Recover the amino acids of this structure.
């Protein structure tokens, strides 16, 4: 199940445009985080996707939504991809993301504010970040244009490249892996900021890997053995 999440939309019209784009690609679950007031323009721009706007779920904050709906996999989108030293915003392209996508639980696909996108705190909540390469003369895309590209890549894979269904690792299984790694890093005596970065890097690696439940089980056993042989500093 894929939730399309619009964080703090500022324009009623863009809500409608996003709903219309969703319906183009078979998506119907729209979530609005602390949105502007819905107006007639929202429904007018949605055209034949008015029911997507009408049935949208509204939450006050992103953490509230993620917790309330029990989201298993969170995907952020950004127009400002980071390099090797901007760990929070290390990103993959939409085609690479869709190529590896095989989530069987609940996935949230986040789109940020029209002006500022997603904040660093919101990006930190994501398992993987997606960015769209654009020309340097005008690098920031309209949200509905960006959404259409990401939706298309997901839809194209579903329609053209069916794969054998695997049991995706659950949110609890992935959190268990991250906790095991955190325990190992703590025993290495890293400073607090390096521990935080190491945890974030490991979370992103696990997110991009789209690991199965069996893989998570095997990896956790290995991490447990490593942890057991380390002496805390």
């Amino acid at each position: 199940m894929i939730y399309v999440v619009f964080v703090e939309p500022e324009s009623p019209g863009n809500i409608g445009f996003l709903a219309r784009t969703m319906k183009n690609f078979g998506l119907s679950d729209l979530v609005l985080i602390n949105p502007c007031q819905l107006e007639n323009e929202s429904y007018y721009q949605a055209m034949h996707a008015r029911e997507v706007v009408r049935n949208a779920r509204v939450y006050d904050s992103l953490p509230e939504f993620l917790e309330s709906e029990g989201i298993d996999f969170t995907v952020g989108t950004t127009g400002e991809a980071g390099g090797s030293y901007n760990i929070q915003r290390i990103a993959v392209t939409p085609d690479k993301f869709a190529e590896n996508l095989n989530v069987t639980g609940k996935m949230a696909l986040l789109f940020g504010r029209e002006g500022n996108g997603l904040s660093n705190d919101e990006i930190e909540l994501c398992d993987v970040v997606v960015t769209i390469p654009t020309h340097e003369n005008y690098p920031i895309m309209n949200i509905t244009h960006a959404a259409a590209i990401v939706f298309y890549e997901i839809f194209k894979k579903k329609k053209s490249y069916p794969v054998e269904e695997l049991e995706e690792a659950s949110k609890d299984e992935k959190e268990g892996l991250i906790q095991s790694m955190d325990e190992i890093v703590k025993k290495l005596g890293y400073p607090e900021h390096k521990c935080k970065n190491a945890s974030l890097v490991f979370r992103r690696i696990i997110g991009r890997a789209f690991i199965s439940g069996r893989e998570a089980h095997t990896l956790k056993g290995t991490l447990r053995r490593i942890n057991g042989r380390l002496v805390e500093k």
